[in-house]
Amino acid sequence: MKIIGMISGTSYDGIDVALCDFQESDKEITVQVLDFKSVPYSEELHGEIAAAMPPRTVDMERVCKLDTYIGQAFASAAKELMGQHDVSLIASHGQTLYHWIESNHALGTLQLGEPTWIAEKTGIPVLSNIRSRDVAAGGHGAPLVSLIDQMMFGDYAEPVGALNLGGISNITVTGKGMVPIAYDIGPANGLMDAALQAHSDGAIKFDRDSQIALQGEVNQKILKEMLQEPYYQAPPPKSTGKELFHLPYIKQYFGEVSTWKIADVIRTLLELTVETVAIEVERFGLKDMYVHGGGSANPLMMQRFSQRLPNCRVQPMSVLGLDPRQKEAATFALIGYLSWFGLPGAIPSCTGASGNRVLGSFTPGAKPLQLPEPKPEGNYRVVIR
């Protein structure tokens, strides 16, 4: 069964699209990524999304237009990757615009990208609104990537960490005999990207190859102050995003943008990510950690993890056969596969939900929607091919 998984993360730089082939035997699901593309948003749409991100406020006209424009962008990205493949389903995460958290409880989550535009352009049924059911069941709707982590690493003899470095960092810790746990740690690329875009008036989107951070020095005083953020002390499961970690948050510590020495700001924010992750790795005494997401391509960050965590082997997810850039999109393709067959798409101990739930809402394609007979629940495993 061929499924396209799509997501634009909290860095909102573009749409990751993975075309995956799924084969199953004796509750072992083999996943092969047949094709992958990261499709950048147009400059105009990127600017519109940036202008709508927290802590900014928007009116319903802006929400309606963004929902349409993002849906159309996802539709074009899916159509581009389909080619001549016989695709059965498209699983679209969309673009998170707001994640509503109060007192460490998720009360709602909003992903834009109207799925009917995708179904209309491709003729393929679409699974969307994927996080909300988990939130309705008392969970955080995140981190959903913990699903594939548990299905890959749940049988490992020793606890393993799987670290995602997107706009926000999140970790899954699992292993044989333990109840898996996953949660958002704190900022990763999101704060660095916000700082660079503000300082350059949008001319620089991210710190390619750590070129800017390598020229800076860590402001130890500010780093120490930032590490006092109450979110880090909250017990998991927990989730966060741009509703907390945004440009005004950076200004609280570094002052107005015009006063910044940008290399020092970026270097300090990078070290904040390294230190907050390291604290969690040491909490579990992990010996192995696999990294994916955009931050895995940041050479200085990966170097600092190895230096800061000498007792933990830190490696990119690619050593297991899965490109770190592809993992999130492949995860949503996997969730699509599970929902198609009536199987749960999240790990309750990782999201905080009260129990297993089938995730998402289906939009029919060109033909009436016909779901297959549900599969029995059980301990399914994932193997990457």
The residue fraction in helices comes out at: 25-40%
Number of strands: 13
Straight-line N-to-C gap:
14 Å
Which fold name is given in CATH as the topology of the largest domain? Nucleotidyltransferase, domain 5
CATH C-level class of the largest domain = Alpha Beta
CATH architecture of the largest domain: 2-Layer Sandwich
- Based on CA atoms alone, the radius of gyration comes out at 20 Å
Shape: globular
Largest sheet: 8 strands, mixed
The total of helices stands at: 12
Spell out the helices and strands N to C: EEEHHEEHEHHEEEHHHHEHEHHEE
Q: What is the count of distinct domains?
A: 2
- Pick out the low-confidence regions: none
Q: What does the oligomeric state look like here?
A: single chain
Strand content: 15-25%
Mean pLDDT score? 96
CATH homologous group name of the largest domain: ATPase, nucleotide binding domain
Structural class: alpha/beta
Could you walk me through the main structural features you see in this protein, from its secondary elements to its overall organization?
The protein has 385 residues and is of the alpha/beta class. The protein has 2 domains: 2-138 and 326-384, Nucleotidyltransferase, domain 5; 146-320, 2-Layer Sandwich (Nucleotidyltransferase, domain 5). The protein is built from 12 helices and 13 strands. It has helices at 43-52, 60-82, 115-122, 132-136, 146-153, 189-199, 220-226, 247-254, 262-284, 299-308, 327-340, 348-351, and strands at residues 2-8, 14-25, 28-40, 89-102, 105-112, 126-128, 160-165, 168-174, 181-187, 288-292, 313-316, 361-363, 381-384. The strands form 2 sheets. Strands 1, 2, 3, 4, 5, 6, 12 and 13 form an 8-stranded mixed beta sheet that branches. Strands 9-8-7-10-11 form a 5-stranded mixed beta sheet, with helices on both faces. A hairpin with a 2-residue loop joins β4 (89-102) and β5 (105-112). α1 packs across α2 and α6 runs antiparallel to α9 (262-284). The longest helix is centred in the first third of the chain and has 23 residues, at 60-82. The chain starts with a strand and ends with a strand.
